[in-house]
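---------- Forwarded message ----------

FYI, see the S-protein homolog record below. Original note from H. follows.
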Amino acid sequence: MAQTQPAASAIDLNPKYRVRITNEFSNNDDPLVIHCWSHDDDLGVHTLWMNNEWYWEFANKFLGRTHFVCNMTHGIKEKTVDVYDTYNNDLKCEREKKCNWSIREGGFLFFSEEKNSLIKYYDWW
């Protein structure tokens, strides 16, 4: 009996996405403390020292919005930001399905697939 093999070009109707956050501060005086969540999931609190990273993977909701928010603190600095949002074309990471964030003294840098470079997306203040 012949077996059917999946087509190499099969379309994944619900692909996995990855959001990665990297602490790229220039000193290790204070850790970057991250608390991320969506409407459905609380991803907990994570502490990143200099040059450490943390990531999670997920699939978009089949219907409706997938939206992840993170509160980040570093010393006395604190900010809550959108890190993934199906309603924001910049934060959908469509091509590679990877949303990469670099957190630094000067702000929150996002890797733009369209521009193939890091762009400053948020300031701390």
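H. also flagged this: The chain has a mean pLDDT of 89.
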